[in-house]
Design a protein that fits this description.
alpha/beta, 7-stranded mixed beta sheet, 4-stranded parallel beta sheet, globular
């Protein structure tokens, strides 16, 4: 299969399964906490499994047994997996406040139906975002009748900001980087008593990062149900802070007795913090501070709790350039590989790009143990978030360089 030249980096994790999924990991993601997340999210009226799309033509081209795309573009109307984790975290936080502050005996169906809106209307949830996290928080806040503040760096697109504002959230524009938006969000939230729903632990809500990751694990459960008796040999998933990848690895660690699929984490080459962490065997920062069109994966350092799981549960990491990922984005959106077109956005394409790039290299195929019998799942973590940006990317001339 031909394609663009790629300055990819690949690294197999030498610490893979060096330690079992033990007490440290179970404190972050175990059967009880995961099942509780499932019950909360499943109670939302618009909950439904997102599609697992089979791609027979691309699997032939890649010379693998079967290929499925877990497509998160239909999740709660928000085009992203983020609402799974944010819903779990916010519902738990609201229940906690209603119980501890208002001394109410909370019934989940009543909460979802809006019985406590006179109380939830005084609550404000906050986060910094580059798009999807903020939309998901605004969505679940509006569902429960709470207020929401979202802090965005000035480079976040107008379309992403408009989507968040359409849900009634207040958007605060922050001069500088995403990290500066995070800093200001934490400062202002402490000042005003807002509840931060992010990777930062806040007094009284120290378990929020764990709750978010538990919610993301619902994707893995859906994949397991949808595949039935089939079992994935590999799952390719985008990197970023790593909580999505960690939730997938954790689910299979606690739910299967006969081994787990190989979790392959895919990152932009300019934001490779998980790659670097695997390389150094410890939580590490990205090797570069560059930008990427895969904006949702631009993170300087992994989530500590995600790394606690990925350290021994991620099988490998692969990075991709923007150029190579855009070519795969165009092909998938246009149906060029021969399968039905899939409307995947710029961040959501990373996992698919990682698989395509890995399959072009006989050395990487061998390291990943990809064969003609492999049953592979790629997670498209978002659909189309910014239609104008996607249209611009699809309109540019195709580049076709031999690999």
């Amino acid at each position: 299969m031909e394609g663009v030249k790629e300055s990819r980096k690949f690294l197999r994790n030498t610490n893979f399964k060096k330690e079992v999924y033990g007490l440290k990991q179970l404190a972050l993601f175990d059967t009880k906490s995961f099942n509780h997340a499932c019950s909360l999210v499943n109670s939302l009226p618009d909950y439904a499994q997102t599609p697992l799309i089979q791609m027979p033509r691309l699997s032939e081209l890649l010379e693998i047994g079967s290929l499925y795309c877990k497509y998160e573009g239909d999740r709660f109307g928000g085009s992203s997996f983020k609402s799974l984790g944010l819903s779990n975290a916010v519902i738990v936080a609201v229940e906690r406040i209603l119980t501890n502050t208002y001394k109410l005996k909370v019934e989940l169906p009543d909460l979802i139906a809006g019985k406590y809106k006179s109380n939830t209307s005084s609550m404000t949830f906050a986060a910094a975002t580059s798009g999807n996290h903020g939309y998901a928080l605004a969505w679940i806040s509006s569902q429960l009748g709470a207020k929401c503040k979202i802090y965005c760096a000035t480079d976040v697109s107008k379309n992403r900001i408009s989507r968040i504002q359409s849900l009634g959230a207040e958007v605060i524009s922050v001069e500088g980087s995403f990290d500066r938006a995070v800093e200001l969000c934490n400062q202002q939230s402490q000042l005003h008593g807002d509840i931060v729903i992010s990777n930062v632990a806040q007094e009284g809500f120290e378990d929020v990062p764990k709750l978010i990751m538990n919610g993301y694990g619902i994707i893995a459960k859906e994949i397991s149900v949808q595949l039935g008796d089939a079992f994935p040999t590999h799952i390719f998933v985008g990197g970023g802070g790593g909580r999505l990848a960690a939730s997938i690895a954790a689910f299979y660690s606690i739910e299967t007795k006969f081994g787990s699929p190989k979790i392959i984490v895919v990152e932009p080459d300019k934001s490779d913090c998980i790659f670097q962490s695997i390389k150094h065997g410890a939580l590490s920062t990205s090797s570069a501070q560059g930008d990427s069109f895969m904006t949702g994966l631009v993170v300087n350092k992994p989530s500590p709790i995600a790394w606690d799981i990925l350290e021994n549960s991620a099988f490998a990491s692969i990075t991709t350039s923007d150029e190579a990922a855009i070519e795969v984005l165009r092909a998938v959106n246009a149906g060029t590989y021969g399968d039905q077109p899939i409307a995947i956005g710029e961040t959501g394409i990373a996992a698919m790009a990682g698989l395509v790039l890995a399959s072009r290299s006989s050395a990487i195929r061998s390291e990943l143990e990809i064969t003609k019998e492999s049953n592979i799942v790629v997670i498209a973590c978002e659909g189309v978030i910014d239609q104008d940006l996607l249209d611009a990317l699809l309109a540019e001339p195709q580049i076709s360089l031999e690999s």
